[in-house]
Amino acid sequence: MCAYHALSEAEAIEYARRLPDLFAANSELVSREIGDGNLNLVFHISEPSSGKSIILKQALPYAKVVGESWPLTLDRARIESEALMIQEALCPDLVPHVHAYEPELALTVMQDLSDHVIMRRGLMEGNKYPLFAEHISRFLAHTLFFTSDLGMNQQEKKARVKQFVNPELCKITEDLIFDDPYTNSPNNNVPPAIQDAVEAVWNDKELHLEVALLREKFLVQAQALLHGDLHTGSIFIKPESTKVIDPEFAYYGPMGFDIGAVFANLLLNYAAQEGWSQDASSRQDFRAYLLNTVRDIWVGFDRQFRTLWNEQGNDRMFKTEGFQDAYMTRLLQDTFGYSGCKMVRRVHGLAQVADINKLEDAAAKERAQRIALQIGTSLIKHNRKAASIEELLDIAVKAVQ
Amino acid sequence: MCAYHALSEAEAIEYARRLPDLFAANSELVSREIGDGNLNLVFHISEPSSGKSIILKQALPYAKVVGESWPLTLDRARIESEALMIQEALCPDLVPHVHAYEPELALTVMQDLSDHVIMRRGLMEGNKYPLFAEHISRFLAHTLFFTSDLGMNQQEKKARVKQFVNPELCKITEDLIFDDPYTNSPNNNVPPAIQDAVEAVWNDKELHLEVALLREKFLVQAQALLHGDLHTGSIFIKPESTKVIDPEFAYYGPMGFDIGAVFANLLLNYAAQEGWSQDASSRQDFRAYLLNTVRDIWVGFDRQFRTLWNEQGNDRMFKTEGFQDAYMTRLLQDTFGYSGCKMVRRVHGLAQVADINKLEDAAAKERAQRIALQIGTSLIKHNRKAASIEELLDIAVKAVQ
Q1: Partner-chain contact B316 A155, CB within 8 Å
Q2: How far apart are CA A234 and CA B297, in angstroms?
Q3: Interchain CB distance below 8 Å, B158 and A167
Q4: How many beta-carbon pairs under 8 angstroms link A with B?
Q5: Per the CB < 8 Å rule, is B219 touching A154?
Q6: Left (φ > 0), alpha (ψ -120 to 50) or beta: where does B368 sit?
Q7: Which residues does chain B have within 8 Å of residue A216's beta carbon, measured at their own beta carbons?
Q8: I want to staple B355 with a disulfide (CB 3.0 to 4.6 A). Which of A388, B90, B272, B336 is the partner?
Q9: Coil, strand or helix: which one is B151?
Q10: A253: closest CA among A279, A275, A222?
Q11: pLDDT tens digits for B108-158?
């Protein structure tokens, strides 16, 4: 079973059986392929006699997006498993445990999280997660601080940069997030109802300059090991637990890109409340919950990040008076900018979001799309002027008034 | 001869004789070790019968600096030879030709440049090099543009970043340039005569913040493949030819660091004219030559870099209106900052410069040191406000008034 090939359900069982210390010898195992087949095979292997289960995730050598198929490196399985292990060392409760990684098969054996739900779906169902802000702000503070020059040996960090060079998956981000949405690209999926607003995006030169600057920063700034795709579809959640999954886009980039991904997806759901909420009062209530979550994440992140820096940072120059404040301000500004980019691409780019696209009422969907574009473009244009998280919340509030 | 060991002169001849197409079979070869023995062995191998000669440069597994010896990776020989080959492909006339590279021996066989002189020495002897500005601005524009995301495939660039991860040599820069000079570090060599001025540097918080920001950019900004140590001791010159040598500090960093290294070393010589010039008139004349050279380099670099961008850049987003101007302004600002850092460390840091240190007149030397510190600290403090190269020249002029 050494040469790479896509596993069958039976082979997945055979492989799982050979893993040490997981299942009883000769017990019955059940295998079910539960992936969507776009990028990976995902086998759920369970042992009915004990109730134990694991996930085998195998990368496929191609990606299927809207019917097309293109080759995609299997190295992303290595990147994903190595990133997960680094994240687990820093925040053991916030990522799935990796039992094993098999390079030849591009296969990662990890904790089964079937008792959690995908956060995007949870939010669409109107659930609130009061612990999420604490969990994700801790995840962000610890993974970003301790993989950066602030929090780790600066020579070892350079080796990490090398370990996580990830050209093919970065290319997807560079094109689909930072390029296509700002021009009439065949990769876009423009909803006809908002053609006018999308064309305004295509013609907005002030916006384009800011996006070009943010894209360049994504290309050159090796600040910390990012998750790289931290939307609410990459988060498994239940009330008492949050698990960040799928870091196959991990690479060394600007910290604000990860924080912005979280904010953008909360704000996309905020926009989509045009359709999900039953009435004005519940809409207002859920939107307030989402904005409070954004605020709590930033405030919690800022506090924890500075505490780690002050208590565990051992770089003399980074303790220079004024440096930390300048750094955190720039990080907030990047967060504004990347939040905006991550929203805009989800409205009329190639890959959109269920929060908006599953809305059945056409008028509500159109309003949600326009609100998302309004917030996204405002955040992008405001990014280099941002000085407080409250400005982000104000932009969101104004867009629905 | 495969396992690494330091070659003898006789072994160097034996090695050279086996190189194809260089020397006649069985002809007499002469070997002379001409390195300073601090970091590398440098063998000059010549064939008296033909007048042909080559250089064999072998990295030593340690560095000797002021009597101390510390281990230093042999991988720098690979980095140097690979950087030279990339530079040669871009500017064939401006670097020595690499005949061969032998990884096992950390040995590079390259063109003999004995007919050139080290530029630092040339300037100390009062020579002017009217073609230098054209040569070095072309070297900078081509090597920086074509190794950046602006001028090469952005996925291949990521592989280049990986190829040139260079932790040990970057560490030397991070400590000796961006840290030690700003604190009372045992690595400094503080000239007693300027103790007061050095202490002012140690206590200047505005300066420290700017240095911390520049150092952070050096740590995270993978903008282009830098030479990494582009001072006038890394340049071989004669009136009609310029050759940039010794890129063992090469890594992906901020472009302004290379441009700043050139400016800093011209300005250190400018400061040192306190002692080298015979009289006020020749001092003024040589200083004007140096400042004109700085201006010509920036203007030539800016023109060529923009031309390459406009004519050969194939990235849609980088053609966004306003982006190029914003990029070039930031590059100028980085150049100010790194010029300043490269000057300050040469006054009272570990490694200083002959331009100043060889001055025999103590008063002239002290004046030169104070001028260099004045220019360096002013450039650093001004860096984020800089808008034109003329401001750099003004700072230099004011420092000698």
Answers
A1: no
A2: 50
A3: yes
A4: 112
A5: yes
A6: alpha
A7: 149, 318, 323, 327
A8: B272
A9: coil
A10: A222
A11: 999 999 999 999 999 999 999 999 999 999 999 999 999 999 999 999 999
Contact of B204 with chain A, judged by CB distance below 8 Å, is answered with: no
| Complex ipTM value | 0.95
The full length of chain A comes to 401
Asked if A255 and A179 count as a contact pair (C-beta separation under 8 A), the reply is no
Length of chain B: 401
CB atoms within 10 A of CB A26: 7
Is B323 within 8 Å of chain A by CB?
A: yes
Burial category of A99 from C-beta neighbours within 10 Å (exposed 0-12, middle 13-18, buried 19 and up): middle
Asked if the C-beta of B155 comes within 8 angstroms of chain A's C-beta atoms, the answer is: yes
Contact (CB, 8 A) for A126 and A286: yes
Smallest CA–CA distance, residue A224 to chain B, in Å, is 9
Helix (H, G, I), strand (E, B) or coil at B141: helix
CB neighbour class for B242 (10 Å; exposed up to 12, middle 13-18, buried from 19)? buried
DSSP letters spanning B183-235: TT-TT----GGGHHHHHHHHT-HHHHHHHHHHHHHHHHB--EEE-S--SGGGE
Helix (H, G, I), strand (E, B) or coil at B395: helix
Task: Select from A36, A187, A55, A183 the least CA-distant residue to A110.
Answer: A55
Q: Return per-residue pLDDT of chain A as tens, 401 residues.
A: 568 999 999 999 999 999 988 999 889 999 999 987 678 999 999 999 999 999 999 999 987 765 567 889 999 999 999 999 999 999 999 999 999 999 999 999 999 999 999 999 999 999 999 999 999 999 999 999 999 999 999 999 999 999 999 999 999 999 999 999 999 999 999 999 999 999 999 999 999 999 999 999 999 999 999 999 999 999 999 999 999 999 999 999 999 999 999 999 999 999 999 999 889 999 999 999 999 999 999 999 999 999 999 999 989 999 999 999 999 999 999 999 999 999 999 999 999 999 999 999 999 999 999 999 999 999 999 999 999 999 999 999 999 99
Chain B residues whose beta carbon lies within 8 Å of the beta carbon of residue A161: 161-162, 165, 222
Q: What is the DSSP string of A288-347?
A: HHHHHHHHHHHHHHHHHHHHHHHHH---SGGGSTTHHHHHHHHHHHHHHHHHHHHHHHHH
Would you call A158 and B170 a contact, using CB atoms and an 8 Å cutoff? yes
Closest residue of chain B to A167, computed from CA coordinates:
B155
Reading the block at residue B253, the tokens are: 């960093």
CB contact under 8 A, B322 and A149: no
pTM for the model? 0.96
**Is B107:B58 a contact under the CB 8 Å cutoff?**
yes
Structure token digits, residue B97: 């030709």
Which of these, B54, B53, B100, lies nearest to B78 by C-alpha position? Answer: B100
Chain A, residues 40-79, CB within 8 A of chain B, namely none
